[in-house]
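Why should sequence recovery work at all? Because a backbone constrains its sequence more than one might expect. Tight turns favour small or flexible residues, buried strands favour hydrophobic ones, and helices have their own preferences. The token representation captures these environments compactly. In the example below, the structure is given first.
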């Protein structure tokens, strides 16, 4: 097993546990946000792991953050399910979303205790509600198709099916994945939450298999790329022949990368009256939620202060 060379932090440090963290714009945005939020002399450092990495490497990361005094916590992406599965016994606390969905996107410390949390149900809800028409599901009877069965997809599905929405929920949710193991884990997570919205778990080893699901979607349906393809790996989960639903919505969780799915959706936007969204706001909400947890700050998600944080990020985005 190759060791991760994690050195003790020399000042308050938050980590970004991902796949290609140095390429992320957050490395430029974080110092500006830290100044705006008055977080003091702190830093963000990346920890890159392979997708579905070794259990021992995930445990190294958790153990390091837990034991190092100046390491305050981390945002976890891509590895949210794998990391918790590998190191669940090392966490002293786990929030309700994390326990229900079996994932952590946030690692923080409180009174000497290591805390794990799943923030995606909140960040995905905030991002979705920014473009979803009011009472959309109730008014249209539309469906939702989530490609990818990782932590982000689990979280979004949980939000869409929330009983508090009553009649304003998709008439059916389709979840696809290239491997059966993730689908089974997602189904088990949903069983723990006692979801009562019809959910179909579809094995799609080829992009053409996702195309087939899209052909059966009702008008107004939501199609989501939650696979990581287009960012963590090149390509798209669908082919160029996949028909997006008329009057529907296409949402790519990615905001950087080759963004093939986004390009495919935009090519059909006019002909099919399709609304196309990238992962920009999802990125903003996700990071601010975890930064708030790690540094124990209440960060606003509306109003002038939030708008300024968005402007700071937009400025850095323009430099890519």
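From this structural description, the recovered sequence reads:
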């Amino acid at each position: 097993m190759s060791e991760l060379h994690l050195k003790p932090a020399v000042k308050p440090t938050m980590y970004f546990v991902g796949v290609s963290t140095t390429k992320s714009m957050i490395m430029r945005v974080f110092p500006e946000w830290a100044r705006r939020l008055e977080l003091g002399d702190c830093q963000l450092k990346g920890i890159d792991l392979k997708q579905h990495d070794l259990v021992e490497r995930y445990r190294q990361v958790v153990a390091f953050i837990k034991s190092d005094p100046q390491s305050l916590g981390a945002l976890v992406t891509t590895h949210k399910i794998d990391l918790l599965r590998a190191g669940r016994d090392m966490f002293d606390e786990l929030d309700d979303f994390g326990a229900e969905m079996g994932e952590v996107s946030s690692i923080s410390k409180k009174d000497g205790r290591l805390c794990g949390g799943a923030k995606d149900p909140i960040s995905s809800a905030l991002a979705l509600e920014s473009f979803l028409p009011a009472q959309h599901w109730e008014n249209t009877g539309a469906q939702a198709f989530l490609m990818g069965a990782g932590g982000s997809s689990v979280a979004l599905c949980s939000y869409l099916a929330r009983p508090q929405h009553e009649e304003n929920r998709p008439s059916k949710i389709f979840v696809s994945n290239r491997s059966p193991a993730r689908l089974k884990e997602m189904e088990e997570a949903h069983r723990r939450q006692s979801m009562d919205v019809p959910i179909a778990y579809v094995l799609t080893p080829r992009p053409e298999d996702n195309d087939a699901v899209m052909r059966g979607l009702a008008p107004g349906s939501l199609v989501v790329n939650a696979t990581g393809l287009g960012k963590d790996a090149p390509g798209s989960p669908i082919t160029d022949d996949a028909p997006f639903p008329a009057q529907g919505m296409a949402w790519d969780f990615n905001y950087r990368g080759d963004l093939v799915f986004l390009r495919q959706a935009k090519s059909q936007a006019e002909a099919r009256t399709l609304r196309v969204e990238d992962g920009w706001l999802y990125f903003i909400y996700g990071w601010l939620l975890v930064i708030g947890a790690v540094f124990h700050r209440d960060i606003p998600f509306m109003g002038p202060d939030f708008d300024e944080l968005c402007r700071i990020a937009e400025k850095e985005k323009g430099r890519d």
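A few observations help interpret the result. The chain has a mean pLDDT of 93.
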